[in-house]
Design goal:
Largest sheet: none
Number of helices: 10
Helix content: 55-70%
Order of helices and strands: HHHHHHHHHH
Distance between the termini: 33 Å
Shape: elongated
Strand content: under 5%
């Protein structure tokens, strides 16, 4: 009899633990859904950036600006975003002290774990209740990731800069012109070519600083740093329904 009671308790405990958190496919699905949603705004921003290339002679945005940033972003985006959402903010169980029995076991507050849990924890109901916070976490991580890649001091930026200088200087590029012209004219052209190269580098830096405000605009903001709203990057109804499809 005692064994039956113990087994019953174990079975009840394991069954009640099934819906305690967003795990496995829930985490993967939600992270990938946000990455998919952001693919269009990101492409829009990078194409706009490419199209403000000085002396632009392309019928479509040049790949040299889009591909290095986009490839690097896609390589790390899943890991970074999953970490930003789940271990960093939404994690753990939702149980709290029972106000009717303070000395008793912790219990799920009303609405927890689903469908609308007013406690920050790792359940779908919590993600839905705090969805404004969730979508800001996703937006901020996406913005920060892209802006980091578009900032001098990393290999991706250096690749873009090299291609930018080559494209802006014609088929040979500014570096080739410096090597070809300077010996022929006794080096008198070298300072001017260097100034031109520095001016191009500064134009690129100014262009790349626009990644963050342009993403904000693509998401429905003003580009001034006010991230309230951003309705084009909300997906409120669709994402809430998808989140609650997980147990």
């Amino acid at each position: 009899m005692r064994l039956v009671i113990i087994l019953s308790v174990i079975l009840f405990t394991s069954m009640s633990a099934v819906v305690t958190a967003c795990e496995g496919q829930c985490i993967v699905g939600i992270t990938n859904a946000f990455l998919s949603n952001y693919s269009h705004p990101i492409i829009t921003v990078l194409r706009e950036m490419a199209n403000i290339h000085p002396d632009h002679r392309h019928s479509s945005p040049p790949d040299f600006l889009i591909k290095p940033i986009l490839s690097s972003y896609r390589k790390d985006a899943y890991t970074r975003l999953e970490h930003a959402i789940f271990p960093s903010y939404f994690h753990g169980k939702c149980q709290q002290k029972d106000p009717r029995n303070p000395n008793g076991p912790h219990v799920n507050p009303p609405g927890c774990p689903n469908p609308d849990c007013p406690v920050v924890c790792g359940t779908p109901g919590s993600l839905v209740h705090f969805y404004p916070r969730l979508r800001y976490i996703v937006y901020n991580e996406t913005r920060y990731h892209l802006q980091t890649l578009a900032t001098p001091g990393n290999k991706v930026y250096e690749e873009v800069e090299r291609n930018f200088l080559k494209e802006a200087g014609g088929s040979g590029g500014a570096g080739h012109r410096r090597r070809d012209l300077a010996p022929a004219i006794g080096g008198t052209m070298l300072p001017r070519i260097r100034r031109q190269e520095q001016a191009l580098k500064e134009k690129l830096r100014m262009m790349m600083r626009q990644v963050s405000p342009r993403l904000e605009k693509a998401c429905g903001g003003t580009g001034t740093g006010n991230v309230r709203g951003l309705q084009k990057c909300s997906w409120d109804s669709t994402m809430k329904g998808y989140i609650l499809s997980f147990p």
